[in-house]
Structure formats: C-alpha cells, structure tokens
Amino acid sequence: MAYIELKEVTYTYPLMKEPALKNISCSLELGKFYGVIGENAGGKTTFCNLLRGLIPHFYNGKLVGDMTINGEDIRKIDVDVLSTKMGYIFQNPFTQISGVRKTVFEEIALGLENLGVPKARMIEKVIEVAKLLKIEELLQNDPNRLSGGQRQRVAFASIIAMDSDIFVIDEPTSQLDPEGTERIFEIIHMLKEQGKTIILVEHKVDLIAEYADEVLVFQKGELLKKGDARTVLSDLELLEHGTMLPQAVILERELRLNGIVLPRVPVTTEECIDLLQKGEAGYESN
Ligand SMILES: Nc1ncnc2c1ncn2[C@@H]1O[C@H](COP(=O)(O)OP(=O)(O)OP(=O)(O)O)[C@@H](O)[C@H]1O
Ligand SMILES: [Mg+2]
What we know:
Main location: membrane
Oligomer: single chain
Largest sheet: 6 strands, mixed
Shape: globular
Bound molecules: adenosine-5'-triphosphate, magnesium ion
GO molecular function: ATP binding; ATP hydrolysis activity; ATPase-coupled transmembrane transporter activity
CATH superfamily of the largest domain: P-loop containing nucleotide triphosphate hydrolases
Keywords: ATP-binding, Cell membrane, Membrane, Nucleotide-binding, Translocase, Transport
Protein name: ABC transporter, ATP-binding protein
CATH architecture of the largest domain: 3-Layer(aba) Sandwich
CATH topology of the largest domain: Rossmann fold
InterPro entries: AAA+_ATPase, ABC_transporter-like_ATP-bd, ABC_transporter-like_CS, ABC_transpr_CbiO/EcfA_su, ECF_ABC_transporter_ATP-bd, P-loop_NTPase
C-alpha cells in the first residue's frame, strides 16, 4: 500500500519563476528501496525536502497539488513527529550536525532526548548504535571537529538511534573519499537488510543498481521515469537525458554491437560476469 502519495505536485521556491518540481505524481511504499537519479538541478534534493516535510514547513514558496504521508495531508503534518519516523541525511555533511552539542554522544542522544526517552535507556541506545556503526571511538569528540565521513556516520547514528523506519538519504557520499564512501554504503546495506524504507539520491548509479527495488529519474523538475530498477537502469534512452547508466549496461551494449549477445541485460557487474562465465553469451556474425 502507498505510504507516500503525490498527485500533480508542483513546487516553486520563494522568489523563483520556474518551479523546481513540476507536476509530480507518484507513490512510495514502505519497505522498499528507491534510488533517485538524474542530472544536476533536476529536482532530486527538492523532492527529498518535500518527502521530509521541509517543504512546505521550512521552505515557503508555492506548493500546488496533493500530497499525503500515511494518509495525512503534508500541509497539516507535524514535522517534529514526522522527523521521528523519517530521518534525513543531507547532501552536505557540514550542515548535518546540530552545532548545539559538545560531544558526539550528546549529538546522537539529541533525538532520543526530544522523544523523552529515559536517561538509562538513552545511554544504552547510543552505545549500541555507536558499536553498530563502529564510531565508539568518536563518542567523546567535538561534533564540530569531525571529518565529512565521520559526520555522515554520526548523522546515520542519530537516525538509527531513534528507530526511524524511513531514511531519506541525499547523496551521502558526494563529498567523501572512497573509504568514507564504502563505510557509508556498509551502513546503507545494513539498513536494506533490516527491511527499512530507503530513498537514496546517488550519482553512483552502480550502487543504485546493486540495492534499489525501484528507480526514479528526475530531469528539469519532472519525473522522467519511475519503475522497477532493472527496467529503468537498462533503458539506453536515459543516456540522452544526461543520466549515467550502470557499467554493466554500457558493456552489454558494446558487446552486442560487436556481435556478442547476452540473454538479458545485466545491471550489476557481478551479474555480467556471471552471464559470461556460464557461457550464456550468443554470437552473431554481421
Ligand atoms: N533553496 C532554494 N531556493 C531557490 N531555488 C532553489 C533552492 N534549492 C534548489 N533550487 C533550484 O531548484 C532546482 C532543483 O534543484 P535541486 O537542488 O532540487 O536539484 P538536484 O537534482 O538535487 O541537483 P544536484 O544533483 O546538483 O544536487 C534548481 O534549479 C535549483 O537552482
Ligand atoms: Mg541535490
């Protein structure tokens, strides 16, 4: 059943002429992993702001159309309540930290405190999550003196500590090095295993291919495509719209142009290797 439902939603930021999102209709279900891709300035972050209720509650501007979360009108929703169910990881790790707490421990505990969780339980929970995300050694550090990768892990910890069901994650690794990126993807992998609902904006489309159930493609504020990940990610037409496709999809096209035909289009590198190893490639002479 649809948990989040948008019907012909158009949103324009204050003082802007052109809408950042145009006529978006879609629904999102609980327990699924959604990959969000598309060219720069396509509207991906704006879409996340909307899911998280920051539009219209934090950003003003003009919102037209209908949107509900769990049947509740987004305009009437209490964003504080929403924030306990739906965690948000921002694109820029440096906007992530509240800045009001002296230690990482207190930073992670902030959400639990707001929920009124008793102190003993809170301490237990923070330590448990810190262990899970391998950030125990950071707990007494100043949150304002962390690296980008550490900040992102602390941000995940805060949300996981609150037992959020839904994670809206906006390009969490765009400013991280490969090691920092891998550690974040370990966390995302873990959340997927736990069956959490995940909406992940990510340019690294090979990662989306590995994890996503469905993919949404934004272009110039419009939802160009939404569907099953395999179908969307193997659509070569997307290349003409400034969207990257997985390496395996590009390789399959090259092989096919050279007379080597795989029985299906692989979307991950593992799948591609598997098809080739099993000798499932056919050969066409041209
Ligand atoms: N706070 C804001 N005020 C005014 N316009 C904005 C604001 N944030 C984004 N925009 C505009 O809205 C459009 C969509 O931007 P958005 O940030 O949602 O795109 P994006 O797909 O996340 O891009 P990127 O891949 O660069 O992160 C752009 O034209 C952008 O300039
Ligand atoms: Mg963005």
